[in-house]
Amino acid sequence: MDICGNREMELLKKIGFTRVAGSAEELQAAEILKAECEAMGVPAILQEFEIEDAEITEATLEILEPYQQSYPVTGYKCAQNTFGDGLTAEFLYVEDGEDVNLDDAKGKIVLANGFMRVPLFKKLMKAGVAGIVTMEGELRDDREGTDLSTRKLRRTLRAFGNVPMVHTRVLDAFDMVKRGACKAKLVLRNTTVEKKSHNVIATVMGTGKPEEIVSFGAHFDSVDFSKGVYDNGAGSVINMEILRYFVENPPYRTVKFMWYGSEEIGLEGSWAYVKAHKDELQDHKLMINVDVGGPVLGMDKVTVTAEEDLVAFSKYMAKICACPATIKQGIYSSDSIPFADSGVPAINFSRDGAQGASYIHNRFDTLSFLSADALAHTTRLVLEISRSLINGKLFPVERKVPQNMVEEVEKYLYKKELAEVAEEK
C-alpha cells in the first residue's frame, strides 16, 4: 500500500472543526474516526470517561487606583470563587515570581508573566496571594483578530492551594503596569461540572504473536477557537493511514490504535485508558505517539522515551527511508506520558513547524500552512520505524523505561512536590 497524503488531507478536512474536551463536537469527531475505521472493516469502539470541567458565569477585573478601568478577562475554570461583590485588594506585578518579587505579595492580587505553571503557582500559594492574573498574546495583537483563551486550574496545581484567578491579554497587562495599577477588584464565579469524553479504539490482531501489543496513539481534541488540524488532527490522520497499512498487511504482533479525547486539558484520555487497562498494559511492548504534523515548512522530530538503542535504530531507519529527522532520547508532553509512567516504553513523532510558519492553540491553526506531502512524509517515517519493530521475530526494544527517563517523567508530573504536599496534609 502506498501512503496517500491526499487521503489523509481529506480526513483532516472532515475533522477540522473546533472540538474541545467534553463537547458535542469532540464526540462528533470521535464518531467520524470510528466510522473511518469501520469503513476499512476494522471494528472500533468509543470508550467513555469522565472529565472535570466548569461553567463560568462571571469573570471581571477592574483597576481601582490610581485610575479606574475594567479590562477584558476570562476566568480560570475550577479556581476559587470570589465572595460577595468580589475581591478587592492591592495589585502587584510579580513578573516571574522571584523571591524578591513575592516579598510583599501576601493578601494582594498579583499579575504574573505568561501561563500558570506548577513551580510559580506553588510559590504564589506559599507567599499567600489573594488572587492571580495571568496573561497571553503579544503587544501587537488586535482584539478583533485574536482570541483570549479560557484556562483551567488543574488538579495538579490545586493540590498546592486555590485562589480566584483570571486571564488577560499581554497588551492589557502592559497597560496596567505602565499606568501604575496598585489596587484592583477581581470577580470570579464558576461551577464545577462533570462531562463525558471519549477514546476511539481499534485493534488489528497479530498473526504470529497476538498476545504482544504495540499501540499507536494520537489525540483528536482541540482548544477553544482552534480547528486543531496541526494540533492534532494531523497525528490522528497519520495513525489512520498506518492502520490502513496494517489492515492490508497483517502484522506479526497485535497493533492497537487509540485516538484520545481531552488531551489538551491534561492528557485525560490516555490517563483514562491506562487506568482502565492496567492488566492489558503488561502486554504492551511499545507505545507510539504522533502529535502535531503537516506543516510545509518544518522539521520531523522523534523523541524516544526508551532505551538508547531505540534512538540508534530510529536514526538508521530514518536514513534508510530518506526521511530526515532530529532523533533523541527524552520525554514529550503528550499521551505517551501515562504509558511511560506505567512502565511502557514510548516513541513520539512530530513535525514541528519552522519559526513563523505554523500556529498552535489559536484561531490560526488551519489547513493553510499544511500539505498532503508533509503529512505523507511523516507517515512514512512512522511506518518504516514501527513496522520493522512490530514484525520482528523477537521484539528488540527492552520493555523497560530507563531510570533517567523515569526521573524525567516524574519531574514532568511533579511527583516529588505532590508527595511533599500529601505528607504535609
Account of the 3D structure:
The longest helix is centred in the middle third of the chain and has 20 residues. 34% of the residues lie in helices and 28% in strands. With 425 residues, it is of the alpha/beta class. It contains 14 helices and 14 strands.
Nutshell version of this structure?
It contains 14 helices and 14 strands. The protein has 425 residues and is α/β, with parallel strands linked by helices.
DSSP, total strands: 14
- Extract low-pLDDT stretches: none
Number of domains: 2
CATH class of the largest domain: Alpha Beta
Shape category? elongated
CATH superfamily of the largest domain: Zn peptidases
Cα Rg:
23 Å
The overall pLDDT, averaged over residues, is 97
Number of separate helices: 14
Q: Do you know the CATH architecture of the largest domain?
A: 3-Layer(aba) Sandwich
Helical percentage:
25-40%
